[in-house]
TrEMBL record:
Chemical reaction(s) catalysed: citrate = D-threo-isocitrate
Function (record text): Catalyzes the isomerization of citrate to isocitrate via cis-aconitate.
InterPro entries tied to this protein: AcnA_IRP_Swivel, Acnase/IPM_dHydase_lsu_aba_1/3, Acoase/IPM_deHydtase_lsu_aba, Aconitase/3IPM_dehydase_swvl, Aconitase/IRP2, Aconitase_4Fe-4S_BS, Aconitase_4Fe-4S_dom, AconitaseA/IPMdHydase_ssu_swvl
Superkingdom as given in the UniProt entry: Bacteria
Protein name: Aconitate hydratase
Gene: acnA
Residue intervals of the Aconitase A/isopropylmalate dehydratase small subunit swivel domain: 690-819
Keywords tagged on the record: 4Fe-4S, Iron, Iron-sulfur, Lyase, Metal-binding
Length: 895
């Protein structure tokens, strides 16, 4: 894209003899334009506009609007952000590649050039979501789990290898390497990006969008990036800028240092609770102040990672000495280190602890006040101080169990007997990107395991213990420090390098434990070092889930129950029968630091990532299809041609109002994308399970919903199929059930079966919801499935950012109830017939602020003005075209 350079910002930067073209921020001058005091994140966006100014999508007025940002104003100015690259994981990446492959065929069918469907921005995918902890607690666990992973996912992996060959600028990091966000921060991220454009070497801030909401982990090294749905990521790969409003920026000032006994996890759970309470949905959060300098990079990454749990778009740290130290440790070249420092200082992106940029709102935390904490039993923002965890559990238990004092005798296959109670820790998992990138908590967990073993402690026999580090480097430094045997002794053997438990790939519980739980409806718990603990996500057997630091995960495996007060009760007994308390085995910060200094060096990162895209023998020996278009296997239950472009005309049809719509679901507050499109286990008697059985798949080979996202037939049937979903128009049910109003007696049936009948009868559908609809993962299938079920509109009290955008990207209009009102206050039961008028105003190039909603039901007629949440002109274009993919395809066809 040719730069207009209205401000004369184009310049050169010489770093150790290499000359780079840069666009200087200090060139933007004028009345009311104060670039120097802008927040770090907005400076990065400003550079993006300067470099991509083309006089059409990005204009000099856009640049002035950003440079003259009014921190007090509500966002109303749209800009087009062009990320440097796109990062994907395989659960969300497979459907992206399916869509691109389908788009190539659609382009050819419309008479266009199929090769135009090709990433224009570098795209990298890390396969990290597919490994399951089937085998645990043995030295062979890792090898066996990888073997099972390849058996289960062979078709998907062959498809991804085809994509790697068929598309330019698309690279795949094979299975068994690490978690996408850790591979991103340790290897793929550049902090300052370089690319040759029209024969000139440019340098500019590394920015990215990713198909996983925790893409924000890379904010820890000064990279402005965030999670988007797969559909938005596809558009970004195909050269479409990301449409956004210039956001409000919340400055979060950090002072002091963490006290002894408190970890990065405790800090991030404290920040999550604070920021959620403050309200930051759709805003940028940026950390500044003297406490930033005292915060190790790994802790910054842990905080950045949890941005989706705050609800913010990003949670970014500026570039400073600590950034350079980390880049050096992780094996970046001397040239890169010099470029990052020189560029950041030249452009005013280097952190000054004494400076206070302009912010829309401010928060402050003294790190010294952070205390050991958990979050649970069902949301990351529900922080509980560890000193109060046992009491809080007792208070929550009656919600999850009708028999709080149940005790069930269990005998394992090896003859071990015990009584299983509510609150038993049945999974203790060191897993997920949040913490397994952080040496202080990972070494802390291993040192705690060492002290526990030396005291003669063991995990309780009902606990499934798993260790799934974010990268191979963790295994290297455990080995070097001599700590692996102690973790193994407690059953924390390596099960894989991937998300595992946090994404719902926890694998089965110990069989006898699972049977006891299900036969007696026990409320057992998981404790994991992850970032997500939503209902139904971790394991179908487990109702209550707690996030904790890796050392606390080990501690709870030893204690075996949430009823144990880790501050006051013994965690176990030593060989002589003496009580051992948590304080007796908790490692000091000095011990942790000393171990880190002796065990971690930059050579480890260099060796781990030397040939990161090559993969092991299993990967390299996979037979790989070739050709520009993919040959679909009609018998495949993993990868099928997507239906989005069937019968698509060259020009979009006019949008229409909605008449005669029925309610598919009526939902309460905080419905997550996990509720809408679960990633975990597929139940045998569910519509998706029945489909797989009918197609000859044995239940043991069902795999997960996440792994089958390349097959729309499975995913439509899995939409709204979370086992913990409660649909208020089918009271007394839990799971994917609704009432079918096409039948005279409105029977309760599955959401999928009802949808089939509605679509056959030509009846459009709506979903009614409460606050924070669509919070959680950036799951494009939550929107794709909603659309394919025949839903035309969602009416909610409020939305999380990514899901609202994804609904528009799939041609579903997101509406909000009038301020202060909801389904209950309006008297809506879900039995009404809805009409929505005023949508057709979009055909005239305008986006209506509200549309008229009329609901006629047994209790009379309800009318209200639905607030249209199509927030930008770009989103309006997507909706007019029936979705973002159709819009992009038509643009490429014309171009």
């Amino acid at each position: 894209m040719a730069s207009q350079d209205s401000f004369g910002a184009k310049s050169t930067l010489d770093v150790n003899g290499t000359s780079y073209e840069i666009f200087r921020l200090d060139a933007v001058k004028g009345e009311g334009l104060d670039v120097a005091s802008l927040p770090f994140s907005l400076k990065v966006l400003l550079e993006n506009l300067l470099r991509t100014e083309d006089g059409a999508d990005i204009t000099a007025d856009d640049i002035r609007a950003l440079a003259g940002w009014d921190e007090t104003a509500e966002p109303d100015k749209e800009i087009q952000f062009t990320p440097a690259r796109v990062i994907m994981q395989d659960f969300t990446g497979v459907p992206c590649v399916v869509d691109l492959a389908t788009m190539r065929e659609a382009m050819a069918e419309l008479g266009g050039d199929a090769s135009k469907i090709n990433p224009l921005a570098p795209a990298e995918m890390v396969i990290d979501h597919s490994v399951m902890a089937d085998v645990f607690g043995t030295p062979e666990a890792f090898e066996k789990n990888v073997e099972i992973e390849y058996e289960r996912n062979r078709e998907r992996y062959q498809f991804l290898r085809w994509g790697q060959g068929a598309f330019d600028d698309f690279k795949v990091v094979p299975p068994g390497t690490g978690i996408v966000h850790q591979v991103n921060i340790e290897h793929l991220a550049r902090t300052i990006f370089t690319r040759t454009v029209d024969g000139v070497l440019q340098a500019y801030p590394d920015t990215c969008v990713g198909t996983d909401s925790h893409t924000t982990m890379v904010n820890g090294i000064g990279v402005v990036g965030w999670g988007v749905g797969g559909i938005e990521a596809e558009a970004a790969m195909l050269g479409q800028p990301v449409s956004m409003l210039i956001p409000r920026v919340v400055g979060f000032k950090l002072n002091g240092t963490l006290p002894e006994g408190s970890t990065a996890t405790d800090l991030v759970l404290t920040i999550t609770e604070m920021v959620r309470k403050h309200g930051v949905v759709g805003k940028f959060v940026e950390f500044y102040g003297p406490g930033v300098s005292a915060l190790p990079l790994a802790n910054r990454a842990t905080i950045g990672n949890m941005s989706p749990e705050f609800g913010s778009t990003i949670a970014v740290f500026p570039i400073d000495e600590e950034t350079i130290k980390y880049l050096k440790l992780t094996g970046r070249s001397e040239e890169q280190l010099a470029l990052v420092e020189s560029y950041a200082k030249t452009q005013g992106l280097w952190h000054d602890p004494s400076a206070e940029p302009r912010y829309s709102e401010k928060l402050e935390l003294d790190l010294a006040t952070v205390v050991p904490s958990l979050a649970g039993p069902k949301r990351p923002q529900d922080r509980v101080e560890l000193s109060n965890a046992a009491a809080a559990f007792a208070g929550d238990l009656p919600t999850y169990s009708s028999n709080v004092d149940a005790k069930v005798p269990v005998t394992l296959a090896d003859g071990t007997s015990f009584e299983l109670e509510n609150g038993a820790v049945t999974i203790a998992s060191i897993t997920s990107c949040t913490n397994t990138s952080n040496p202080s908590v990972m070494i802390g967990a291993a040192l705690l395991a060492k002290k526990a073993v030396e005291k003669g402690l063991q995990r309780k026999p009902w606990v499934k213990t798993t260790l799934a580090p974010g990268s191979k480097v963790v295994s290297d430094y455990y080995e070097k420090a001599g700590l692996t045997p102690y973790l193994d002794k407690l059953g924390f053997n390596l099960v894989g390098y991937g998300c595992v438990t946090c994404i719902g790939n926890s694998g089965p519980l110990i069989p006898e434990v699972s049977a006891a739980v299900n036969e007696n409806d026990l409320a057992v718990v998981s404790v994991l070092s992850g970032n997500r603990n939503f209902e139904g996500r971790i394991s179908p057997d487990i109702k209550m889930n707690y996030l904790a630091s890796p050392p606390l995960v080990v501690a709870y495996a030893l204690a075996g129950s949430m009823k144990v007060d880790l501050f006051n009760d013994p965690i176990g007994q030593d060989a002589e029968g003496n009580d051992v308390f948590l304080k007796d085995i908790w490692p000091s910060p000095a011990e942790v630091e000393e171990t880190i200094r002796g065990a971690i060096n930059s050579d480890m990162f260099g060796e781990s990532y030397a040939d990161v895209f090559a993969g092991d023998e299993r990967w390299r020996s996979l037979p790989t299809p070739s050709g520009n278009t993919f040959t679909w296997d009609p018998a495949s239950t993993y990868v099928r041609k997507a239906p989005y472009f069937e019968g698509m005309p060259e020009s979009p049809e006019p949008v229409t109002d909605i008449a005669g719509a029925r309610v598919l679901l009526k939902l309460a507050d905080s419905v997550t994308t996990d509720h809408i499109s679960p990633a975990g286990a597929i139940k045998k008697d569910s519509p998706a399970g029945k489909y797989l059985t009918e197609n000859g798949v044995d239940p043991r080979d069902f795999n997960s919903y996440g792994s089958r996202r390349g097959n729309h037939e499975v995913m439509i049937r899995g939409t709204f199929a979370n086992i913990r979903l409660r649909n208020q128009i089918a009271p007394g049910t839990e799971g994917g059930f609704t009432r079918d109003f096409t039948q005279s007696d409105s029977p309760v049936t599955t959401v999928y079966d009802a949808s089939v009948n509605y679509q056959a009868a030509g009846v459009p559908l709506v979903v009614l919801a409460g606050k924070e609809y669509g919070s959680g993962s950036s799951r494009d299938w939550a929107a794709k499935g909603t659309s394919l079920l025949g839903v035309k509109a969602v009416i909610a009290e409020s939305y999380e950012r990514i899901h609202r955008s994804n609904l528009i990207g799939m041609g579903v209009i997101p509406l909000q109830f009038p301020a202060g009102q909801n389904a209950e206050s309006l008297g809506l039961t879900g039995e009404e017939t809805f009409s929505i008028t005023g949508i057709t105003e979009l055909n005239e190039g305008r986006t209506p602020k509200t549309v008229k909603v009329v609901a006629e039901g047994p209790n009379g007629t309800v009318e209200f003005d639905g607030v249209v949440r199509i927030d930008t002109p770009g989103e309006a274009n997507y909706y007019r075209n029936g979705g973002i993919m159709q819009y992009v395809l038509r643009n490429l066809l014309r171009g």
